[in-house]
Amino acid sequence: MLNSASKPSVAAESLDVARAHPGAIMFSSDEVRWSSLLVYGFESAPNVAPFPTPVTRDQIVTLAASGQGEIVCKVDGRWRRKPFRAGIGNMISGGQSCRMGWQSAANSPIRTILMIIPTQFFLDAKDEYRPLGTHVAEVPLRLGDADPVIASLLLSLQNAIASGAPNVYAETLGQYLATHILMRQSQIPASAGDRRRAGVITDRRLQRVLAFMHAHCTEDLSLLRLSREACVSPFHFVKLFKKQTGTTPHQFLMKLRMEAAAQMLTQTGQPVAEISRACSYQSLPHFCAAFQRHFAQSPAAYRRTAGV
User: Fold this and answer.
1) Residue 299 within any structural domain of the chain
2) In this structure, are 141 and 220 located in the same domain?
3) Least confident residue range of 58-62, 233-237, 241-245
């Protein structure tokens, strides 16, 4: 199997895609410094004339979060028009030039979610599930008019960003979305997973992975790094890990970070801001929100309750 040498990351030119958008940013994955997935929420004027989208090798997915009307899109020299409403998406394949605009039916602001997925996720998924003895084909990707799975995931991303979810969450989601989109387009068969041995995480390997996560929980851990500890494919690691632990690697990592933060709050006099950074949170509000959800009280209240 061909694996990328490192975790999939967005191309540098993909940052220009978000900068070219005419809308005002409401939320962004820049807040949590994801590198395996870029997500932006925009609010735009009701009517926007077609504007150029910079070319990138990554895959661009745009989802209407509110409003309805008509979208106009010119891809590789060909104009297309189609209606849009909340939950309807559009996809620009890597390497394609595009101009995009829209007109609102109600003359009210339009809210959209822009997601940029590294092409490496799609190449790895194709390679993982390709029949033995064949090669990975380069086929332009498309997104159907309505995909409830993608719509649900994109609409939930704002909460993930607000909670300060680590990059391993973005990596897990990017891997899943690439596989889902390829299966929807029949570029990999739904039964492909049965053709190759997924492998198992033995008890010994699972304990090694768990010990590794405990020791490095405050670092930026990737699925590739964790799957190597378990000696299984990154594409099967999440499923096997959840099957044996009842939780995803991202959820387990968040739990470890919260436990580490609680220990620092009760055993040291470090300021909360320093503890937040020590637990790999780039934003103090994100750290406090995650701590509140986990322990049902703020870091300051937790420290007071412990008598520190």
Assistant:
1) yes
2) no
3) 233-237
